[in-house]
Amino acid sequence: MLRPAVKTGLKFKVRRNETxxxxxxxxVIIYNSSEYPIFQRFGNSVIVPPEGxxxxxxxxxxxxxxxxxxxxxxxxxxxxxxxxxxxxxTLLRGPFLGLVSVKSKISKLNPTTEDWIF
Length: 118
Hints:
globular, 21% helix, alpha+beta, 118 residues, two-stranded antiparallel ribbon, 3-stranded mixed sheet, 2 helices
């Protein structure tokens, strides 16, 4: 995901005084194509404006204890690129974030970790 430092002028979405930012690779992006354009399409991949992103999902084949913090931080950092603010700087919305795993390899030594994840 890329958040260019440009002034869009659309619905008070101004990025003045920001720098270009980008995220790491993402598995699933849910975006609003009815209100925001798709800049480019490459097979199953797309480039969309960050304001149009509604959700980001990270998919892991096996979720390990060490993956939880790493993936959560990556999702959080990416969500910061997609946040939409009002003209006065109030946060209007950010994307839904999800971490999905096919199989859990989380240690059973700390049952509270599993409780909040599942």
